[in-house]
Amino acid sequence: MTRTRTPVVAGWFTEGGAGEDFRLLGTRCSACTAVFFPREDAFCRNPACPGGGELLEVPLSRRGRVWSYTDGRYRPPAPYVSDPEAAWQPYTLVAVELAAEAMVVLGQAAPGVAVTDLAVGMKVELVPGVLHEDAGTVWTTWHWRPVAVVAS
Questions:
Q1: For 77-107, how does the pLDDT look when each residue is reduced to its tens digit (9 = 90+)?
Q2: DSSP conformation letters of 70-137
């Protein structure tokens, strides 16, 4: 049986892409240039905005630096989906500073990345991920992964 790939939140990231094609999607106010994630489609949230601008969809930077991180050692409540009979696996949360957008975006670390693999200021990149799979659906999301250090 083929399962449908469905984003956990529609419109927050590109679908079906990998590498350079996979991006978080935010909005930028044309009046004040403020960028928002999650996206904002109703009004500019910048209190200093002069108003009158359009909110335009913009892809966010794929790379940033670790601003903070922690691990989740508890099973989150609904609507998070998990099998209560399965052993709980801690996960790593990463807050990533995107310098070009002047914002911090939260997300899970890629599978296999633990808090011991991270450090504040470390370069990370956005990669596609899976939050949950059930009988008919693969629920897709984004993850942050340390950028490979290339020896010179």
A1: 776 767 778 788 888 999 999 999 999 999 9
A2: EEE-SPPPTTS---TTSPP--EEEEEEEETTTTEEEEEEEPTT--GGG--TT-EEEEEEEEEEE-SSE
Say what the pTM is.
0.86
- 137-146 and 103-109 beta bridge pairing: parallel
Sign of the torsion angle spanned by Cα atoms 110, 112, 116, 122: negative
Tens digit of each residue's pLDDT (9 = 90 or more) over 1-43? 688 888 989 999 998 666 678 999 999 999 999 999 999 989 9
d(CA 43, CA 73): 36
Helix, strand, coil content of the chain in percent (nearest 5): 5, 40, 55
φ, ψ dihedrals at 117, nearest 5° = -90, -5
Question: Which residues, in sequence order, are CB contacts of 140 under 8 Å at separation 6+?
Answer: 5, 6, 7, 8, 15, 128, 129, 130, 131
In 3D space, the residue among 148, 147, 146, 143 whose CA is nearest the CA of residue 22 turns out to be 143
